[in-house]
Design a protein that fits this description.
This is WSC domain containing 2. The protein has 565 residues and is α+β, with helices and mostly antiparallel strands. It contains 18 helices and 18 strands. It is globular.
Length: 565
């Protein structure tokens, strides 16, 4: 036997081509046998299993029970419709009628994965219907609801899902990475060839083009159940002097409710809904109706005719809500048309709200901001100036956390953003261990990372401000807390330093969408105060140092809530 095996080996060693041919034929034959047994061959079953009704099983038309993790085509002897469905979708299907769709099961294998993908695509087609390529204009958007960008992972489904979640009827994709939502299309249809950009996160799929939208109509099961998202209560305000100019769209509603007015203004594509008794007014925040002087809510406390637990305002005092419609008057952004003659820094200690301030500046000025660094995640979320070199001169200002004389003197002017060190340190710690809008885990707060972080970063909070006050040229100090509390005034100061003419309507537009995509939704509340007594003592000394430096330059000192802790 050994001699025969040796001869066999020597033969194939001399003739390798014959060996590989024999191996290929063997594998092919085995595959064919396997496929034949999987789709044609039937396992032996008892009479009771073959006829469950006769054996006391479920009656005809009843829903079949879960039969376990079975391979495609196995366990069914019938031919015809039921057998066909079983082969296509596996053993989990309803038997009430032939039109029922099969449910996805855990099939296993390449064939099953392909089949599962096919069913998922069918479900996506049911969710949204492609209706065409449309012209888009940055000054007058085709879809005027909310929008978001992702220059790395945008997909058609992600855009559709975000728009559907907010109750919009249409979802549009542009530049391969931008998603726009709306309740109606306000643009003309163009050739399909003009939508020619591949989605950044989905190869082989088209996501619009340059100023061209690939538009989908979201297929919602019940039109009456369509939701517009939660409206934001803005307060009680006095009736504007020139009502028709301040709030141009009006409708009488005898059975008034908050939902009815908000839905009406949302359909009309306006961001404000003002309830005035039995009248609903829609419009934008403007200088005629800036929403800055709130009145006592008791002046608006007239019950709605259709909802006794809601206030619907009066003809003289309006209850105002902000709808989910995005105010597009401040959404256009671009690079500077010519190279800037001066470099202006947006300087801050890490965690002091620099990214949020950049978002506000871009909306207020219409120009991109740059960075001393490069953060790919910020670029992918729409900060297009992130990729430019900080000396390019194409951006309105430059983000920097640098301190030290040489780095500071490279700039001709600066906006110095200062934040409460207790909040700034926690925000930066969250960013370091949880990302731009994430949070550090409790293990990081409890472990050695937090004390070491405070020991290294707390002195930097003080020296950063002191260095910019000492070496900076033309420094405008802005406190983060003041910017949050009085955005209109503080952002106006910042824009003036940047040399851009302040447009009040644009600043009012910024106010209505000030949060952006990179503002952390409040610090996660810890079960304990992470600052020990020694930490507080050290940080308080740094606060006093910075306060004295500001007052020594005839500037406002730090806000009162910086200390005591």
């Amino acid at each position: 036997m050994a001699k025969l095996w040796f001869k066999f080996q020597r033969y194939f060693r001399r003739k390798p081509v014959r060996f590989f041919t024999f191996l290929a034929l063997y594998l092919t034959a085995g595959s064919l046998v396997f496929l034949h047994s999987g789709f044609v061959g039937q396992p032996a079953v008892s009479g009771n299993q073959a006829n469950p009704v006769a054996a006391g099983g479920p009656a005809e038309g009843a829903e079949l029970p879960f039969l376990g993790d079975m391979h495609l085509g196995r366990g069914f002897r019938d031919t015809g419709e039921a057998s066909s469905i079983a082969r296509r979708y596996g053993p989990w299907f309803k038997g009430k009628d032939g039109n029922e769709r099969a449910k996805l099961g855990d099939y296993g294998g390449a064939w099953s994965r392909a089949l599962k993908g096919r069913v998922v695509r069918e479900k996506e087609e049911e969710r949204a219907k492609y209706i065409g390529c449309y012209l888009d204009d940055t000054q007058s958007r085709a879809l005027r609801g909310v929008s978001f960008f992702d220059y790395k992972k945008m997909t058609i489904f992600r855009c559709q899902d975000n728009c559907a979640e907010r109750g919009y009827l249409y979802a549009g994709l542009e530049f391969g990475a931008e998603c726009y939502c709306g309740h109606k299309i306000q643009a003309t249809n163009v050739s399909e060839a003009e939508c020619d950009m591949e989605c950044k996160g989905e190869r082989g799929s088209v996501c619009g083009g340059a100023n061209r939208l690939s538009v989908y109509r979201l297929q919602l099961a019940q039109e009456s159940a369509r939701r517009y998202g939660s409206a934001v209560f803005r307060g009680c305000f006095r009736r504007p002097d020139n009502l028709s100019l301040a709030l141009p769209v009006t409708a009488a509603m005898l059975n008034m409710s908050v939902d009815k007015c908000v839905d009406f203004c949302t359909e009309k594509e306006y961001p404000l809904a003002a309830l005035a008794g039995t009248a609903c007014h829609c419009g934008f925040p403007t200088t005629r109706f800036p929403l800055h002087d709130r009145e006592d809510e008791q002046l608006c406390a007239q019950k709605c005719s259709a909802e006794e637990f809601e206030s619907c305002g009066t003809p003289s005092y309006f209850i105002v809500y902000q709808t989910q419609v995005q105010d597009n008057r401040c959404m256009d952004r671009r690079f500077l048309p010519g190279k800037s003659k001066q470099l202006i820094a947006l300087a801050s200690f890490p965690g002091a709200g620099n990214t949020w301030a950049r978002h506000l500046i871009e909306l207020a000025t219409g120009f991109y901001t740059g960075s001393y660094y490069f953060d790919g995640s910020l670029y992918n979320k729409g900060f297009k100036g992130e990729r430019d070199h900080w000396r390019s001169g194409r951006t309105i200002c430059i983000k920097t956390h640098e301190s030290g004389q040489k780095e500071i003197e490279a700039f001709d002017a600066a906006i110095l953003l200062i934040r409460n060190p207790y909040k700034a340190l926690m925000a930066e710690f969250n960013r370091k261990y949880g990302g731009h809008i994430g949070f550090a885990a409790h293990a990081h707060w409890k472990g050695k990372e937090w004390p070491e972080f405070v020991r290294n970063y707390a002195p930097w909070w003080a020296t950063h401000t002191l260095d910019w006050l000492k070496f900076g040229k033309k420094v405008l100090v802005v406190h983060f807390e003041d910017l949050k509390q009085d955005l209109f005034i503080q952002l106006g100061r910042m824009v003036n330093l940047l040399g851009v003419a302040v447009r009040e309507d644009r600043l009012l537009c910024v106010e209505s969408q000030k949060d952006g995509n990179f503002k952390r939704s409040g610090l996660r509340k810890l079960e304990y105060d992470p600052y020990t007594a020694d930490m507080q003592k050290t940080i308080s000394a740094y606060i006093k140092m910075v306060d004295a430096a500001l007052k020594g330059r005839n500037l406002t000192g730090v806000p009162d809530d910086y200390y005591p802790r």
